[in-house]
Design goal:
- By secondary structure, the protein is of the alpha/beta class.
- The chain contains 18 helices and 10 strands.
- A hairpin with a 2-residue loop joins strand 5 and strand 6.
- Helix 5 runs parallel beside helix 6 and helix 12 crosses helix 14.
- The longest helix has 20 residues.
- The C terminus is likely disordered.
- It binds FE2/S2 (inorganic) cluster.
Length: 459
């Protein structure tokens, strides 16, 4: 143990025999807590991104109680602090506008309250980078608690995946091959439990990256939200964060450049979302160990995609990934590409955490000798259309799309593109490419809600 009760940050609020501390203590007593509940104990903030408008975090109302149980068992004092809840599907014009808002909110919540450590509850796309960026900047010990993926979708016995199947069947609907009743049944079957999208989209990508960087308990990011293991993992987070406070295991003492490189390697092997780049770069900058586009490019050339999860894979979803061994098993398979000496929130190295983990289904988590895609999930391209670089996801493309010649139909705003796509008289052929050009704040995006510039100052 490195810290004493007297040296706790919260003791500055509660310990002195002065007028201010009298006020702090009397207000905690006002809530019905006795001195024995908090005096001399680590005060743990539980930053909860639950809301009635966030379907992916619907279980957080209960999970926060599970975390509190763990904090209390370990001799800490839990305080739930609500933060903005960013539902990727509900919030307009785009949650990206609010990621840095959540980062600032997290940082200032932790700074302004009498807390010694934090459990961060997130999962839906931007919440993972937002929470962790803010907590890294604040510098208190913290654990990230991933929401976990929802169960597989189901429609008449057919497995449905978030996002990709919606796009696919919407095309069928528009072509008149799917009637109203089938469409309604699909709506009711594609998202049938709480938890995040269960394809390898931004949510699953960022939850996995957070674990690979060492910010979550081992195995936590793969547990489906509806699984009882998720409840126990939540309580483990509560127990562990109290120990982290006593050990003074702060992000500054834990994180190195190698941690973020492990995140990149993991992202490539998972067949990550392209959004991984912008978020992981932002997280690494907060820690003072910046990674760049070139680092992603370098890792993508040597780490193959081995997770056979849609959309890079052709068949499986995150629930299958969990049954096949989950992220620990995937990381064990790419061990040669990791810095296994990197310290993690449970006080052990990444290498210790993944040791002995096994893959139970080789078709879901492939051996390195039989990958889904021989190079990593993403590729960085530069050319006259994108002199500063552009990202593509070759692992999710049909091979014939990787080399192409055709006309570029360029649009300056989304409504024009949308209108053109629906125009039966549009002068196009099968070789043409649609390009949505970012023309600044009034350009690309979703102008029907008004496009706001994405703040980049805090990246
Ligand atoms: Fe929340 Fe997809 S809408 S993760």
């Amino acid at each position: 143990m490195t810290r004493s009760p007297e040296s706790l940050r919260s003791a500055r609020w509660f310990a002195p025999d002065d007028f201010r501390s009298f006020g702090h203590r009397s207000r905690v007593l006002q809530m019905g807590y006795g001195y024995e509940d908090w005096m001399g104990k680590p005060v743990i903030a539980i930053v909860n991104t639950w809301s009635d408008a966030n379907q992916c975090h619907a279980h957080f109302r209960q999970r926060v109680e599970d975390v509190k149980r763990g904090v209390l068992q370990a001799g800490g004092f839990p305080l739930e602090l609500p933060a903005i809840s960013l539902s990727e599907s509900m919030v307009k014009p785009t949650t990206m506008v609010y990621r840095n808002f959540l980062a600032m909110e997290t940082e200032e919540l932790l700074r302004s309250h009498p807390v010694d450590g934090a459990v961060l509850m997130g999962g839906c796309d931007k919440t993972t980078p937002g929470l962790t960026m803010g907590a890294i900047s604040m510098g208190l010990p913290f654990i990230y608690l991933p929401a976990g993926p929802m169960l597989r979708g189901n429609w008449k016995g057919q497995v449905l995946g978030s996002g990709s199947d919606a796009f696919k069947f919407w095309d069928e609907r528009r072509a008149g091959r799917l009637d109203e009743q089938a469409w309604r049944e699909m709506e009711a079957g594609i998202a049938r439990s709480h938890g995040t999208c269960m394809t390898m989209g931004t949510a699953a990508t960022m939850m996995g990256i957070a674990e690979a960087v060492g910010l979550a308990l081992p195995g936590a990011s793969s547990i489906p939200a509806a699984d009882a293991n998720h409840i126990r993992m939540s309580t483990d987070c509560g127990r562990r964060i109290v120990q982290m406070v006593w050990e003074d295991l702060t992000p500054a003492r834990m994180l190195t450049r190698a941690h973020f490189e492990n995140g990149i390697a993991c992202a490539m092997a998972m067949g990550c979302s392209t959004n991984a780049i912008i978020h992981l770069i932002a997280m690494s900058r907060r820690a003072g160990h910046p990674v760049s586009l070139d680092d992603f490019d370098a890792f993508s050339r040597r780490v193959p995609v081995i997770a056979n999860i849609r959309p890079s894979g052709d068949r499986y979803l995150m629930e299958d990934f969990f049954y096949a061994g989950g992220l620990r098993a995937l990381l064990e398979r790419i061990r040669p590409h990791l810095d296994t000496g990197a310290m993690t929130v449970n006080g052990k190295t990444l290498g210790e955490n993944i040791a002995g983990s096994q893959v139970h289904q080789d078709d879901v988590i492939r051996p390195l000798s039989s990958p889904i895609y021989a190079e990593g999930a993403l590729a960085v391209l530069r050319g006259n259309l994108a002199p500063d670089g552009v990202i593509i996801k070759p692992s999710a493309c049909a091979p014939h799309l990787l080399r192409h010649t055709g006309r570029a139909l360029v649009f300056d705003d989304y409504p024009s593109l949308k209108q053109a796509v629906d125009d039966p008289h549009l002068d196009v052929n099968g070789e043409d490419i649609l390009v949505l050009r970012n023309a600044g704040p009034k350009g690309a995006g979703m102008p029907e809600w008004g496009m706001l510039p994405i703040p980049t100052r805090l990246l």
